[in-house]
């Protein structure tokens, strides 16, 4: 499979397509440091694990499709995502960011936020954000939460100085996100 371009389409593999789009939301833009402009791909037991970070958040998802391990700048065209040749860029040790000692704080329901008027949607989201902040003691960028798929998320918070917030998708067991808190 080395050197072969891998393409994931929404019609052909919608679940993996959505997982890649989820991770790409945590990729840095053109002006960002080079390591955050890449999607890191690792071999998993079945398929591949993909990881993206913009330095403030980390998104991880497992795919059923096998993509050769490496660091990619995937190309999105319509309803397809293409993985060309991997880059020689170095990706950070992402596992060091995932909190192992985080405490379970409850769940957060993001499903159904797309219904109702704009004001109703904003009020629902505001209630969810305030409850998350109250339950965890951690403030994060609201835009990061809005980038998450509409699902039920398990919430974990790390104590001490780091106070990282980890969210695990209850419905898609293959997805999680780690957020750095906003500066006090």
Secondary-structure map with pairings?
Elements: E1 6-9, H1 14-24, E2 39-43, E3 48-53, E4 57-63, E5 70-72, E6 75-77, E7 80-83, E8 103-109, H2 118-136, H3 142-146, E9 152-157, E10 165-169, E11 175-179
The topology string of helices and strands comes to EHEEEEEEEHHEEE
- CATH architecture label name of the largest domain: Roll
- Proportion in helices: 10-25%
What's the β-strand tally?
11
Question: How does the major sheet shape up?
Answer: 8 strands, antiparallel
The first-level CATH class of the largest domain is given as Alpha Beta
- The gross shape turns out to be globular
Description:
By secondary structure, this protein is of the alpha+beta class. It has 3 helices and 11 strands, in the order βαβββββββααβββ. The protein has an 8-stranded antiparallel sheet, with helices on one face. Strands 1-7-6 form a 3-stranded antiparallel sheet, covered by helices on one side. The longest helix has 19 residues, at about 120-135.
């Amino acid at each position: 499979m080395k050197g072969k371009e891998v393409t994931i389409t929404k019609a052909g593999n919608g679940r993996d397509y959505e997982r890649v789009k989820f991770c790409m939301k945590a990729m840095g833009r053109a002006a960002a440091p080079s390591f955050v402009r890449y999607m890191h791909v690792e071999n998993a037991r079945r398929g591949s694990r993909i990881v993206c970070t913009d330095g403030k958040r980390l998104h991880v998802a497992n795919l059923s499709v096998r993509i050769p391990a490496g660091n990619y700048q995937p190309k999105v065209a319509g309803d397809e995502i293409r993985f060309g040749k991997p880059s020689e860029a170095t990706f950070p040790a992402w596992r060091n960011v995932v909190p192992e000692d985080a405490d379970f704080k409850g769940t957060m329901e993001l499903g159904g936020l797309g219904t109702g008027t704009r004001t109703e949607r904003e009020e629902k989201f505001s209630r969810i954000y305030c409850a998350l902040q109250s339950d965890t003691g951690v403030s994060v960028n609201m835009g990061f939460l809005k980038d998450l798929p509409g699902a039920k998320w398990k919430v974990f918070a790390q104590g001490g100085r780091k106070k990282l917030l980890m969210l695990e998708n209850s419905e898609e067991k293959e997805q999680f996100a780690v957020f750095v808190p906003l500066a006090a």
